Amino acid sequence: MKTTSKAQYKSEMARKYGMSLNTFTCWLKRIPGLKERGYYSRLKLLPPNLVDYIDKHLGGDSHDTDYLE
Question: 61, 56, 52: which is closest to 3 by C-alpha?
Answer without folding.
Answer: 52
